[in-house]
Amino acid sequence: MVRLAAFGIFLVILSLGRPIVIPVLLATLIAISLSKIVDLSEKGLPRWLTVLLACLAAVTVVMGLGFLTTRAATDFGSAFGQYRDDWDRLQSELAGWLWNQGLGIPATAVTEFDPSELVRGLAVPGFTLALSIVSSGFLVLLITVFLVVESSSFAKKLAATDRLGGMNVSVLRGAARDVQQYLLIKTVTSTATGLLVAGLTTVVGLGHSLLFGLLAFVLNYIPSIGSILASVPAIALCLVTLGWVPAIGLAAGYAGINFVIGIGIEPRWAGDATDLSPTVVVLSMVFWGFVLGPVGALLSVPLTIIVRITASQSEEWSWLAKLLSSPRSIVRAEDDQGA
Q1: Tell me, what DSSP letter sits at residue 44?
Q2: Contacts from 235-239 at CB under 8 Å and sequence distance 24+?
Q3: Which of 2, 3, 193, 278 is buried most, with the most CB atoms less than 10 Å from its CB?
Q4: 107 touches 95 (CB < 8 A)
Q5: Taking the model in full, what pTM does it have?
Q6: From CA 150, how far away is CA 280, in angstroms rounded?
Q7: Which segment, 6-15, 187-196, 207-216, 312-321, is predicted with the most confidence on average?
């Protein structure tokens, strides 16, 4: 009971400390992803060169995503005013349709809504959010660089310790490998999703392909619903600017991409890396999203992988590891014991 209460207090501290916890978590996961580059020193490359390459990769990724995101958002913001006529037309068509259906909904309920008021209402908090994201990006980059530079000394400290909090150091390294493999698979599938979405929006004639491609790339890291969320803004804009038929075609294209990559390829590819139950993946997204916000939903699977592996090393918490594991891994473990 005491440990459960301590765990609850720990979650509260995590939630309250989001401004600090989130950059540290992001930087740690990026550093884990870049450890493959640092490990090249074991194949003969100088240590200083592998660390330098890893740091350059971190700078390239963070700064590149920041530049592309800023560029896409700026282009969309400058073109937003051009959509006012399209919005007015859609309002008139919707008001006429509601009137013809005899639903008793007055046309003014639709035509008097001014989207510019909504935009103005979101301008100040949106600008504040953009500044916070940029600031977090630089903080994440700074922490990542320090983690990469200190990785060799950190590894030596772990090697000099037989056990760390009751956990074998090799288990920590195994957890890092699983997270690394998952992030690699997710990055490849997210990149493919983003490129396909960018191509799809270009073919449909929607425009802002960079914005919607980046949106699909980032939100695809959220399990199950990320790709669906990424499709909503594009379909809505297509409905306003191009009409119903192109919007339906765009929705069908999104569904096809998500079906092939999100249902056909990714689960089979990432199944061994995560070793999590599909239900646990969804619940972990909800849980970590509640604790850490949207970034928690993005990082839900890596965090749950770490929790599962940590719990598996404790007799007291082994039940949690089994509860989080996929049925396939449990059957495999039972077969190994039977053999």
Answers
A1: T
A2: 237/83, 237/206, 237/208, 238/204, 238/206, 239/90
A3: 193
A4: yes
A5: 0.74
A6: 34
A7: 187-196
DSSP 52-71: HHHHHHHHHHHHHHHHHHHH
- Is 163 strand, coil or helix? strand
Please give the Cα distance from 52 to 173 (Å, whole number).
22
Residue 164, H or E segment: strand 163-164
Q: Is the pLDDT score of 129 beyond 50?
A: no
Total residue count of the chain as it appears in this document:
339
- Work out the average pLDDT over 309-329: 75
- Residue 140 token pair: 């994440």
Q: Tokens 């192109």 belong to which residue?
A: 246
pLDDT of 215 strictly over 50: yes
Distance CA 312, CA 19 (A): 30
